Amino acid sequence: MRPGCPSRRRCGALCANCRAEWSSSAYRTVQEELSNALRHAPGSPVRVELDHAREGLGVTVVNGPATEPATERTPRETGEGHALTGMRERVAMLGGRLALRPAGEGGFEVAAFLPACGTEEPGG
Asked: How many CA atoms lie within 13 A of 44 on its CB side?
């Protein structure tokens, strides 16, 4: 988690034999949403949940409302602006789904599900 940010995390039993693509996609989803929370809702509390089930891996990141003023830098100035598109593409590439929605009291939630986190490679 990032320094100075109130945060909570909850991890269910994680798959020890997940392919690298699943691990990487889950990691990048969490990383992107933490960056988005820092940029758009500075000082907000953040909750990260990872749930592995037989059907796949669930990743949820929820931030609360900003407690500090957001920066006024544009995506062009920061070189950013395609994070949600990239997140959606990474999850879709693995046959998963991504939900983006407002969370209570001015926060934001990103929930991804990556199916069939198993040992068999696609087509193999």
From this structure: 28
